[in-house]
Amino acid sequence: MGKDVIIHWYEVVDSTNRLAKEEAANASDSTVWAADMQTAGRGQRGNTWTSDRGKNLTFSCLIKPANLSPSRQFLISQATALGICAYLAEWGLAPQIKWPNDIYLGDKKICGILIEHSLTSERILSTVVGIGLNLSQTEFPASLPNPTSLRLALAEHFPDRPLPELDPKEELVSLLGHLHAFRSLIDTESGATALGTAYLDRLYRLGVSALYEDKTVTPPRRFTGRILGIDKRSCLRVLDEERGQERVFSFQEIAYLR
Predict the structure, then answer these.
(1) How many CA atoms within 13 Å lie on the side-chain side of 224?
(2) Which of 68, 3, 125 is nearest to 76 (CA)?
(3) Which of 79, 174, 188, 257 allows an S-S link to 182, with CB 3.0 to 4.6 Å?
(4) Residue 208, class by beta-carbon neighbours within 10 Å (0-12 exposed, 13-18 middle, 19+ buried)?
C-alpha cells in the first residue's frame, strides 16, 4: 500500500463514514474503517447504499491533508475516483468517472463515493472518503437502475476466463495501494495538474451527445447536450446543443438521462 495503514474491519456496522467521523480526531492519517455489511450505508444526495453481506467493499478512509484549502477539495475526489479506476483497469476493464465521482463500466455503476469534509475557511482539517465498490454481488434490488459488479463485468468482458475468487480483505489492500498512489499527487501543483488531465481522460460521456435534465428551472427541462469538461470551480461544463450555448452546472443541478 505504500505506507503503514491501520484497518479496522467489522462484521456489521451501521455506517463506516459515521465511525470514521466520530474517531477522526484521535485517528492517524489514512486509517480505514471497513465492514462486511453496513446497515445504514449512505451515498450521494442522501441515497442509501445497498450491499449484500461479505460480497462487496464498503469502507471509509480518513485523510488529513497537510495544507489543502477548501477551494481545492475536488482534488481529493479526483484522486479517489482515479485510484478506483486504476484498480479496475488492472483487471482489464475500462472504467469511467461519472461527474463528480461515480465509477461506471459502460453505462453501469460499479462504485459510489461519498466524501465528507471537516474544514475551516482556510484549510481542510480532515476528510472522510466513503467507498462502496461492488465485487461479487450478482443480484441487485429492482429499484437500482443500472448496477454492476466486478464479477459481472469480468464475466461479460472475458467469458472464457475463469472467474477469480474475490476476497474483500485482499481486494481492499490492492485498492488502497492505488488510492495512496493518486493521493500523493494532491500535494504539488504538477500533481494536481496531472490529476486534472487524468480525470478528463476518464470522464464519462465526455464529448458525446446525450440527454440531460436541467434541474435549475421549474419544471426541469430536458435537453440534448455534450460534456465539454470541468471548470475551475469543479462544475460540469455542458454544451446545450439545442440552444447552441455552453452551460455550467453545480452538483445536483443536472441529471443524466439515457
Answers:
(1) 5
(2) 68
(3) 79
(4) exposed
| pLDDT for residue 41 | 65
Cα(27)–Cα(64) distance, integer angstroms: 10
- Domain match, 221 and 161 both: no
Give the per-residue pLDDT at 239: 98
Domain that holds residue 227: 209-256
Same domain, 52 and 116: yes
pLDDT at 66: 87
- Residue 2 within any structural domain of the chain: no
User: For 27-38, what is the mean pLDDT?
Assistant: 96
Of 201, 222, 242, which closes a domain?
A: 201
- 95 close to 110: Cβ distance less than 8 angstroms: yes
Residue position matching grid coordinates 485510484: 83
Cα–Cα distance for residue pair 183/65, rounded to 1 Å: 10
Does 132 share its domain with 30?
Answer: yes
Residues 116 and 227 in one domain: no
DSSP lists the bridge partners of residue 127 as: 63, 117
| CATH code, domain carrying 237 | 2.30.30
Q: How far is CA 167 from the centre of its chain?
A: 21
Q: Is residue 242 part of a domain?
A: yes
Under the banding of pLDDT at 50, 70 and 90, the label for residue 190 is very high
Grid cell of 98 as nine digits? 461519472
Closest residue by Cα to residue 149 from 105, 89, 204, 107: 105
pLDDT single digits (tens) 112-136 = 999 999 999 999 999 999 999 999 9
Domain count, the chain: 2
